[in-house]
Specification:
The complex is a heterodimer of chains A (about 475) and B (about 500). With about 475 residues, chain A is an all-alpha fold. Chain A is about 75% helix and about 0% strand. In chain A, α5 packs antiparallel against α6, α6 runs antiparallel to α8 and α11 runs parallel beside α17. Chain B has 20 helices and two strands. In chain B, β1 and β2 form a beta hairpin. The chains are: A mainly alpha (about 475), B mainly alpha (about 500).
Chain lengths: ~475, ~500
């Protein structure tokens, strides 16, 4: 056996190293729950530094390669996507610090990091898969630890409930997906991505296979009509986990869907475009209408995330290289903006226990910096220039428009106005509404600050610095 | 770096300065310095532009510069100005300058107020200097969103409703616009978003033009208060704080007319010719309906807002007449309306600040109480109804002369109908002046009020000088504009 093949997997290997180091470190320095001296031993610094190193050494894309007979398929684009996910994970670690420092969670810190990174590892394998089994293993590796993370605050009724909901829907969707894969195997006789397209003719069996596969992915990305678990799970899960779920899990699944559609289902492009067309319209519109009525901010962000997923799919639908660039760029921008919002939600929830929109009334007067970051992040989500969200929305619309989906772009644009309405509701709450008992002024800790600064820098710089888009564009591929 | 980029750079520096400044003195200092520099820049630009033209430079746009931004998408930061944009930049600089003084007394969260105010003006300046579709659209949106907070936080009356309505309607307009812009870009098959290049190519298929032209025109038309999408304007203006009303009616609404002319008509002349009758009818309704609505309002700001609908309707009306005289008149009308509406809103703000009412029925005899403000109000009113010697006359005269040059019955009828707005304007302005300025004071409390302070006088006098200047010596600017509308008009009559 040629062991040098392992080198193609250097990203996965270095992530495994990070996981092992944290795991071992956790064994040695884990505080004895009975003799707690009040200090946080394995603090956030170690995972953040390790992840930063891991991100940096894997930043430069290599050359395309196959390993293990095509089971593992590497393309330079994947390094870009993985780096995006890494940055997101670092921000999630930073914003989780305050929550993890709490009495009941701080003995479980190590578990949080290991589980999160295992999920990330699963996503890595899913992204780089060259074979449906590899893909499925990656998907499951990403899903199962996620359920444990959702139920992390197991003494909280909501969290446990959300965990159960998540694992059940995840299993159900995996089942459907697996069924789709088996149908493909039945009609084509292979599971290698490279060999499948030759056998795809678009016969009814294959269409059925595609539909099952798509439904399974639709659950992961939480597209309408497969979104029903989202709001409950987002609300119940600890805020840091919700933020991870809403950006990293979603972003990776969206990219993987696009890659598989391009690589495997290319001969069936007419069929999957038709399906995506309606799913996009439904996701954007229905989620927007539901978001207007939400009071709980985490539920609100859940519906906002569903509609954003619809926008992300606009990059997929054309199947073009430009669409892929727009998609990855959109995911990056969406990630910093969404994590910005979640940082504020998390810190406010930790300090005051408040999570309803009315509680945010008058936040600007007591905590202007938090309110300011939140405003910019919401503006970015709504696509207001000069923030990055404007650029990502423009580019993704441009990609879909170029592929000829004029009406779809128009519907999506009308929906941005609706989304602007509900994002402005929060801005209105913070700046305009009066409050008798506003959230008291407080100072956030260094980790939350770091997370805020990273998000803020991202929101402002990613749009203006065109180099990021151009770098992504260099490596993207289409049909 | 190009000279024109200073118009974006200075507001950016002002934002940074405001961010760091502490205390009201520092904030005012930054604002006054910044807006004076901007005004100076605008005047210098006008002189340089006239010099350059005088020296025989006949390029369509002067001071052009391109910086590639998003190379894979052919998006560049391209700047350049012609007579129209120079006029608009001058107008914007004057309004920002006087608006700063008009909000001198702002007490509540001054820093944030000026931050959003400056961001808004940055968007406006950026829009007028750019010739690239993407950057123009970006600056257009930058100019829109601060309105929400400016009205929502610092406004009066039904401010939350008005702010939300205004933002959503204008953003809805920009959704139309974005589709239109993408349509233009892909329809022309151009490898650039530079609108001069796209106009030169002139190869958007006619069938596509007929889809993208109405979308683009409507998108900008919403901001230009095109009937039936004008409803945000009265509510928005009535609820906004003084300087924001000034900037909004004075400059922001001009983005609509400018965009319709520069993007919709310039790039899609064939569809413009084919479909102009629909929009002519709509703008005709705007002109007459706005004027009639102003007659029955009782709130000073509403009167002015509806009068703005009427006058801005005239701008769109004129550009749809598609000849050089009418288009020149349209740009003159933008200038004139910008100046006199700003003057009006400034005066209303000052009167409201003293009497705490804008209801016409509760005001009277102000001439005795605050003579300075009242005299200025009369001047603004006379400019509004088109008295010769003031700016309104020059603009409306040019528009109607130009419109009448179209020989067919439809255009002539529309012109005659639109001219009636002059009479209706006279009705509401004169009634208003008679009611609130002359006669006896309605409220005894008002007798104790004082006249304008120095900062208010300064802002008002600046505007009056401009209004009168434009009225007395219009030719240098109308020549400058007239030469610059020619490339667009020649596309239209080709």
């Amino acid at each position: 056996m040629d062991y040098s093949q392992f080198l193609y997997m250097k990203e996965e290997l270095s992530l495994i190293a990070v996981i092992v180091i944290i795991f071992v470190a956790d064994l040695f320095v884990s505080p004895d729950a009975h003799k707690k001296d009040g200090k946080v031993h394995l603090n956030t610094l170690l995972p953040v530094i390790l992840m930063a190193i891991h991100t940096l050494i894997n930043l430069v894309p290599g050359t395309a390669a196959d390993a293990f007979g095509g089971m593992y398929h590497y393309l330079p684009m994947m390094t870009i996507v993985k780096s995006v996910l890494n940055v997101g994970t670092i921000i999630v670690f930073l914003l989780a610090h305050e929550w993890l420092a709490r009495e009941d969670t701080f003995i479980k810190q190590g578990e949080f990091y290991v589980l999160t990174l295992s999920t990330l590892l699963g996503m890595y394998f899913m992204i780089s898969a060259g074979h449906f089994l590899m893909f499925f293993i990656g998907l499951e590796t990403a899903s199962v630890p996620m359920a444990a993370l959702v139920a992390f605050d197991k003494y909280r009724h909501h969290s446990a409930e959300a965990g159960a909901k998540y694992i059940l829907t995840a299993l159900f969707s995996s089942g459907l997906l697996l069924y789709g894969i088996s149908l493909i195997y039945g009609t084509v006789g292979t599971l290698y991505f490279e060999d499948i397209p030759a056998g795809i003719t678009g016969n009814p069996m294959q269409i059925m296979a595609f539909v099952f596969f798509f439904v399974g992915m639709g659950f992961k990305i939480s597209l309408v009509p497969f979104h029903l678990w989202t709001a409950d799970v987002y609300q119940g899960a600890p805020t840091a986990v919700t933020s991870f779920l809403s950006v990293i899990s979603k972003g990776s699944a969206a990219f993987v869907l696009m890659a598989v559609l391009i690589k495997v289902f290319a001969p069936m492009v007419a069929q999957w475009q038709e399906v995506l067309y309606w799913v996009i319209i439904a996701s954007i519109t229905i989620a927007n209408l539901f978001a207007i009525r939400q009071q709980n901010l985490k539920r609100f962000m859940a519906f906002s995330a569903i509609s954003q997923a619809g926008y992300i799919m606009l990059g997929v639908i054309g199947g073009s290289a430009q669409g892929m660039t727009a998609l990855v760029y959109y995911v990056l921008v969406y990630m910093v903006a969404n994590l910005g919002v979640f940082t504020v939600i998390a810190i406010v929830e930790q300090r005051s226990g408040k999570i309803e929109m009315d509680d945010y009334n008058g936040l600007y007067l007591t905590n202007p910096k938090l309110a300011f970051l939140m405003t910019l992040a919401l503006f970015s989500l709504a696509g207001i220039p000069p923030f990055a969200g404007f650029f990502s929305k423009f580019f993704i619309f441009m990609a879909a428009f170029q592929s000829g989906f004029h009406l779809l772009v128009f519907i999506a644009l009308v929906n941005t106005v609706i989304s602007l309405y509900y994002y402005l509701l929060i801005v209105k709450a913070m700046y305009i509404n009066k409050n008798e008992t506003p959230i008291a002024a407080f100072k956030s800790d260094a980790y939350s600050k770091a997370s805020m600064i990273l998000c803020l820098a991202g929101i402002i710089a990613i749009g203006i610095a065109s180099i990021i888009y151009e770098t992504i564009d260099k490596f993207s591929f289409g049909m | 770096m190009n000279f024109l980029s200073l118009f974006v750079l200075v507001p950016l520096l002002m934002l940074a300065g405001l961010w760091m400044s502490k205390g009201i003195k520092a904030i005012r200092g930054v604002m006054v310095t910044g807006s004076t520099i901007l005004l100076g820049l605008a005047i210098a630009l006008t002189c340089m532009y006239l010099n350059e033209r005088g020296a025989g430079n006949t390029a369509e746009m002067l001071f052009r510069a391109d910086t590639m931004w998003y190379a894979p998408l052919h998006i560049a930061y391209s700047v350049g100005v012609d007579g129209i944009s120079v006029a608009m930049l001058l107008l914007s600089a004057i309004i920002v300058f006087t608006g700063t003084f008009a909000s001198w007394q702002m007490k509540l969260q001054t820093k944030e107020y000026f931050l959003w105010f400056t961001l808004l003006s940055m968007g406006v300046f950026g829009f007028f200097i750019c010739v690239d579709l993407f950057t123009m659209f970006m600056f257009y949106e930058i100019a829109l969103i601060p309105m929400y907070l400016l009205i929502g936080v610092w406004g009066s009356g039904r401010k939350e409703y008005a702010a939300m309505k205004l933002t959503l309607m204008l953003m809805g307009g920009s959704a139309f616009l974005l589709v239109g812009i993408l349509g233009i870009y892909f329809g022309s098959g151009a490898t650039t978003m530079n609108l001069l290049e796209i106009a030169k190519l002139h190869n958007i298929p006619f069938a596509q033009q007929c889809i993208w032209f109405p979308l683009t025109f409507l998108g900008f038309g919403v901001l230009g208060a095109l009937f039936p999408f004008h409803t945000w304007s009265p509510d928005g203006h009535a609820s906004a704080p003084t300087a924001v009303s000034m900037l909004h009616a004075g400059v922001l609404m001009k983005l609509g007319g400018y965009g319709c002319f520069r993007i919709a008509m310039y790039l899609m002349p064939d569809a413009a010719k084919e479909l102009s009758w629909i929009f002519l009818i709509l703008t005709g309704i705007s002109v007459v309906y706005g004027a009639f609505s102003a007659c029955v309002q009782t709130d000073l700001k509403y009167i002015n807002a509806y009068s703005s609908v009427s006058h801005c309707g005239l701008v769109l009306f004129a550009i749809l007449m598609m000849n050089q005289t009418a288009s020149t008149g349209a740009v003159l009308q933008m200038l004139s309306h910008g100046l006199m509406t700003a003057l009006f809103f400034a005066l209303i703000g000052m009167i409201y600040g003293r009497t705490h009412t804008r209801d016409v029925r509760e005001l009277g005899g102000l001439m005795k109480i605050m003579p300075f403000l009242s005299v200025c109000y009369v001047i603004a009113g006379l400019a509004n109804l088109g008295l010769p010697g003031l700016s309104g006359f020059v603009a409306e005269m040019t528009i109607f002369v130009g419109s009448f040059q179209n020989f067919d019955a439809f255009h002539r009828t529309m012109t005659i109908l639109a001219t009636t707005s002059i009479v209706i304007t006279a009705v509401y302005i004169l009634r208003l002046v008679g009611k609130i300025l002359y006669g006896n004071p309605v409220n005894e409390e008002h007798l104790k009020l004082t006249d304008a302070t120095w900062d208010e006088r300064f802002a008002v006098i600046c505007l009056i000088v401009c209004v009168a200047g434009l009225g007395i010596a219009p030719f240098w600017i109308s020549h400058m504009i007239g030469d610059s509308v020619l490339p667009v008009v020649s596309q239209l009559i080709r």
